[in-house]
Specification:
single chain; about 280 residues; alpha+beta; Jelly Rolls; seven-stranded antiparallel sheet; four-stranded antiparallel sheet; binds 2-oxoglutaric acid
């Protein structure tokens, strides 16, 4: 359970770091499983997800290893998705007893060259009518500044959707939203950072000698309809807490569209393509 102070902080700032939601031991287990999963996937093909626009932030060739929807790969992550500590906090933040999965992304930012994310909102990728969508980033290892921890611009969730630059993966103009002008959110293994999909956020390069390992989980109120049927993926619509008040007997959750029904017409207008990483 979050305190009222934490909820108020989130409402005001559009983000909240919850320290020690998971123990260091739990985080270490998740980290081990995460690295084992990425190693298995690397045997099968490409797991690189660096945004094209990352090149505008750093001259160094960087790398970002990723896996979408980890629950289909390892049951330990399925249990994490429905963990009461996580979903009760999500319910308070979303302000709904019901919490529904949109998708999740495991990211490993490798040592010394872990890719940055230019500042952006997540709303252009999967707009929803009532903007209930939040991210929860579970830290599987420490993420100090030098590991390229997540950075936010507090209060930007109150601005609504902001026009994004399409090229290189939807991001905000770098001159107007330099990474350095945002607030770094260093975290410890087991900490969870929540933020609205309207909150401007990004992250720097991992220049440290250790990988940064995180799972980013996008969740919404099931009563908040997608404004467009975009960014669909297997597992979307799974209930993580409570029930789906909009359900019907056909089990309708986006089954009418194929899982890879990209590109998207954005809230910002125009067709969108995935820039990797989302
Ligand atoms: O993990 C990070 O450093 C940032 C991820 C992010 O901004 C995103 O996936 O939208």
């Amino acid at each position: 359970m979050l305190t009222q102070e934490q909820v108020d902080f989130y409402r005001e700032n559009g983000y909240l770091l919850v320290q020690g939601m998971f123990s260091a031991e739990e985080a270490a287990h998740f980290r081990e499983d995460a690295h084992a999963l990425i190693a298995r996937l690397q045997q099968l093909g490409e797991v690189e997800a660096t945004w094209e626009s990352a090149k505008e932030v750093t001259m160094t060739k960087t790398s970002l290893l990723h896996c979408h929807n980890v629950q289909f790969h390892d049951a330990g992550f399925t249990r994490l998705l429905v963990d009461d500590r996580l979903t009760s906090a999500a319910a308070q933040i979303i302000d709904s007893p019901n919490v529904q999965l949109h998708h999740n992304k495991l990211f490993i930012k490798p040592p010394e060259k872990g890719s940055p994310f230019p500042m952006h909102q997540d709303v252009p990728f999967f707009p929803h009518d009532n903007h209930s969508m939040i991210a929860a980033v579970v830290h599987f290892d420490d993420a100090p500044l030098e590991k390229g921890c997540i950075r936010v611009v507090p209060g930007t969730h109150k601005q609504g959707p902001i026009p994004h630059v399409r090229e290189g993966g939807w991001h905000l103009p770098l001159d107007q939203y330099p990474l350095e002008s945002s607030l770094a959110c260093p975290a410890k293994a087991g900490d969870v950072l929540f933020f609205s999909y309207l909150t401007v956020h990004g992250s720097g390069v991992n220049t440290s000698s250790e990988a940064r390992t995180t799972l980013l989980i996008q969740m919404r109120d099931p009563a908040d309809p997608p404004s467009q049927l975009v960014h669909l993926s297997r597992g979307q619509g799974m209930m993580l807490r409570g029930f789906d008040p909009t359900t019907d007997t056909a089990g309708k959750v986006h089954a009418e569209k194929p899982a890879d029904a990209m590109p998207m017409g954005g809230a910002m207008g125009g067709a969108m393509t995935m820039g990797g990483g989302m």
